[in-house]
Amino acid sequence: MIEQSSIESLKSSMDIVDVVGNYIELKKAGANYKANCPFHGEKTPSFVVSPSKQIYHCFGCGVGGDAIKFVMETEHINYPEAIEKLASMYNFSLHYTQGSSDYSEAKRVLEVTQKWYSHGLSQSPVSQEYLRGRAIAQHSIEEFGVGFVPDGQQVMDYLQSQHIPLPQAVEAGVLARGEDDRYYARLSQRITFPIYSPNGALVGFGGRTISNHPAKYINSPQTKLFNKSRLLYGYHRAKERIYKQKEIIICEGYLDVIMFHQAGFRTAVATLGTALTEEHLPLLRKGEPKVILAYDGDKAGVAAALKAAKILGSHGFEGGVVLFPGGQDPADLIAAGESERVAALLREAAPLIPFVLEHIAAAYDTANPNQKELAFGEMKTYLSSLSPIVKDAYTPTAATILGVSAALFGAGRDNSQVKREFAEHETKEDPEWQSILKTLIETPSLIDDVMDVLSDDMLGAYAPLLGSIVGNDMTHPGVMGLSVNAQIPVLTQEELRRALLKQLEIYYLRKFKQALADKNLSFEKKVYIRNKIQKDIIPKLKRGELVPYESNIII
Ligand code: ZN
């Protein structure tokens, strides 16, 4: 079992905005962050994350909770698993009351392996030679922990000499188990690149062959610790600069990243042997940097850049594309001492959306009307994937590139898509009761003063919330909703009193009218209610006295 104190210190060391931001793209909205809810399909964001309360809440479907709950629900895992997942993300060592867990063991296996790989490089003149040939400096090798893994049997021997059970090494992604049930090393005869989570926890390895193996690069498999489709190589080293410079460079490979950093471009990262996908966007969104795609100018590089630029553009990212000319990759240019030229190319990056539009057009022979029609169709589809305002801004560019009238793209017809603001969700609600309840959440000491004047009957749909607030149960979705909704004010004690007087007066006048109109009510009861409300309650309220609730008013 994980020690409770350990869970508490993990909780206090993590931030819900950061945790949720690893899974979905969050956008700042006042004191909170907003997103489209990952738990129900929606197009206007009603999912809110509150850094001050450390909770999330969806106004659309009512889900809510803390960072641990979010990870449980998103990953479909239980409480201890979510704790361990978070601990691995934050490179946090949990303490266990007895024994240990798969996670802490996998982490230990990776760390032991990394030390050994790193030592392996000093024993391998061939790989040192290779790295020198790529102009990788010794200090970069150390900074990025570049290593070397000799043949597979040596990996097994080493792990056994360290008393690491082989199934644990499989769990960590260092070994694999073949169809014949025999263990084998996943990486052998390769230069190794340790891969870290954004918070600096070692989660896996990438390996480049030095023996002309047909698979140039191999990565660790997907493990409990390692989700390669969301991670970016080098991110934990680049993170601070990315936040500071509001820029991130995405390049194609591990060596490119290392060379960029070596040449002083310290915001460089790379995807882990995959194309950029929407899964990378939450991490890219952090710190709201401009995204520069720095890809090779060859056919594969251009295709990858186009795909990435389309995704980034349609998700509202700012940024640009640099294609390195003549089949050179950025690492080659930097190795050839042309860092200045690289800097100039980065400065002149082609903005994302015009880049996409140009490349769509370039794929067709637009002198041919039929081809032009196809290019037009593709551009139009792409433009409609953009937000209406961005679409509007780039429609003239598209028209110019294709040599057609902007009107053909149907400029300005998409206004129905303009997103409704989050505040509109609240217009059907009763803001008075909401601020009264929110005040009670924020200032629980006031609850006792008002408890005896309120009733479920007055609060209508808000009655269950009052019950939760009084019971100090802050996990009720409605309570969390109020708590994170920055539009609802917290009242002072005096404002609360006045708001209550007003609400009580509205309530009792309504009861009075209802009583008179109620055919099932006896004459005596009607007289009683009328006298009670008209001659007792209302005058007291007018004098500013909060009247205790009496259940015999209920009809
Ligand atoms: Zn939702």
Which keywords apply here?
6-stranded mixed sheet; alpha+beta; globular; 25 helices; 5-stranded antiparallel sheet; Dna Topoisomerase Vi A Subunit, Chain: A, domain 2; 4 domains; binds zinc ion; single chain; 555 residues; DNA Primase, Chain A; DNA primase DNAg catalytic core, N-terminal domain; 48% helix
Structure description:
By secondary structure, the chain is α+β, with helices and mostly antiparallel strands. The protein folds into four domains: 4-89, DNA Primase, Chain A (Alpha-Beta Complex), CATH 3.90.580; 102-226, Alpha-Beta Complex (DNA primase DNAg catalytic core, N-terminal domain), CATH 3.90.980.10; 235-358, 3-Layer(aba) Sandwich (Dna Topoisomerase Vi A Subunit, Chain: A, domain 2), CATH 3.40.1360; 418-555, DNAb Helicase, Chain A (Orthogonal Bundle). The chain contains 25 helices and 17 strands. The strands form four sheets. The protein has a six-stranded mixed beta sheet, sandwiched between helices. It has a five-stranded antiparallel beta sheet with strand order 1-2-3-4-5, sandwiched between helices. The protein binds zinc ion (ZN). Residues 37, 39-40, 47, 58, 60-61, 63 line the site of zinc ion. The site of zinc ion has 8 residues, from loops.
